[in-house]
Amino acid sequence: MTAKQRIIQVGSYAGSPTANDRLARDYDVVELWKYPDRKAALAEHGTGITALVTSASFGCTAEMIEALPDLKAICSWGVGYETLDIAAAQRRGIQVSNTPDVLTDCVADLAWGLMIAAARRIAYGDRFVRSGAWGQVHGSIPLGSRVSGKKLGIVGLGRIGQAIAKRGTGFDMDVRYHSRRPRDDAPYRYEASLVDLAAWADFLVVATVGGPATYHLISREVLEALGPKGTIINIARGPVIDEAALIQALQAGKVGSAALDVFEHEPKVPDELKANDNLVLLPHIGSATYETRSEMENLMIANLESFLATGKVITPVTE
After folding, report:
1. Rounded to 5°, angle at Cα 34 from 12 and 96
2. Phi first, then psi: what are they for 115, rounded to 5°?
3. Which sequence spans correspond to the domains of the chain?
4. CB 111 within 8 Å of CB 164
5. 285-290: Cβ within 8 A, 24+ apart
6. What region holds the D-isomer specific 2-hydroxyacid dehydrogenase catalytic domain (predicted)?
7. Cα–Cα distance between 160 and 179 in angstroms, integer?
8. Is 292:103 a contact under the CB 8 Å cutoff?
9. CA dist., res. 92 & res. 122, Å (int)
10. Which one of the listed residues 221, 266, 291, 319 is annotated catalytic?
11. 167 is catalytic
């Protein structure tokens, strides 16, 4: 009987249908999250391990990489990699993979769900009906805004940003975008200034990567440029928006509404956001469908299998 290849799994994949079972079946897994002293566990079990599996939620720090002298590959579940120390991995020649493409459509769909929910006050209307207020008060809920034919600004025109933009054309929207540089293959107008994009847009969707380079990219200035009739939607990473500035802008009426799937200090959500009826709030579920989570799991495991068989991952992070 062939001995199983030993790997390290940083955290339990609670959001993936069968990932934990598949990894345990096919590999000798060091389940790092079960050890109270991770440093001691890495020292005890780390020698000889060439592959580690993780996610953006669990991360992989420079200290962890340093504790694994034989590590050659980090296979991450999900598209985000801001919590993986890419620079530390690159210095050691360690390959890092993520699971792009397979979650693009579901995240783009959710961005549109949030946009329409905010514009048409769907979450507010749901609470209104459930509370029994319908028919007990004069009139109904405040009027919403039309989405079709409006101006859509997108921050970050990667895979997901492009999918959101494509859906916008189906709603007869004028689409513009801001990113680190213009794309030659994009049929949409590029705005070099994020403030100018916000001032132009009716809806501003944040679809950029997370990490230090985009920390608080959506600043007080950007929010105030969006204005009292504007709506901001975030399906990227929470820290891209200055959350304190967003709360203040909403309370002062300087931003019309917001729809958020991500937050700056997850899972903590400020009470000021929870109490505001001009918000739609979701618990970071952009990829949370049976189909997408299954495909993410398959690609993460395929990257691991490919590395162990050929020495190369399938979808490397290149940065």
Report:
1. 50
2. -60, -50
3. 6-98+291-310, 104-281
4. yes
5. 285/110, 285/261, 286/103, 286/106, 286/107, 286/110, 286/111, 286/235, 286/261, 286/262, 287/78, 287/79, 287/103, 287/106, 287/107, 288/15, 288/106, 289/106, 290/17
6. 25-317
7. 13
8. yes
9. 50
10. 266
11. no
> How far apart (Å, rounded) are the C-alpha atoms in residues 95 and 283?
31
Q: Which CATH class is domain 6-98+291-310?
A: alpha beta
- In Å, how far from its chain's centre is CA 193? 23
SS3 319: coil
Q: Distance between terminal CA atoms of the chain?
A: 40
Parts of the chain with a pLDDT under 70: 1-2, 137-139
**CATH 3.40.50.1100 for the 104-281 domain, yes or no:** no
**For 38, phi and psi rounded to 5 degrees?**
-65, -40
* Same fold: 6-98+291-310 with 104-281: yes
User: 86, 119, 103: which is closest to 284 by C-alpha?
Assistant: 103
CA of 177: how far to CAs of 10, 52, 136, 194, 237, in Å? 36, 36, 44, 9, 18
Q: State the pLDDT at residue 132.
A: 87
Q: Are strands 189-190 and 95-97 parallel, antiparallel or unpaired?
A: unpaired
Q: One of 22, 38, 216, 284 is an active-site residue; which one?
A: 284
Between CA 248 and CA 174 the distance in angstroms is 29
The residue assigned the tokens 């939620």 is 57
What are the pLDDT digits (tens) for 124-174? 999 999 988 887 766 688 899 999 999 999 999 999 999 999 999 999 999
Q: Which of 167, 176, 178, 237 is catalytic?
A: 237
pLDDT at 15: 84
The predicted model scores a pTM of 0.92
Helix axis angle, 122-130 to 104-119, nearest 10°? 60
What pLDDT shows up at residue 140? Answer: 80
pLDDT at 235: 98
Q: Examine the residue annotation and report whether 45 is marked as an active-site residue of this protein.
A: no
Q: What is the pLDDT of residue 159?
A: 94
Q: Is 121 known to be catalytic? A: no
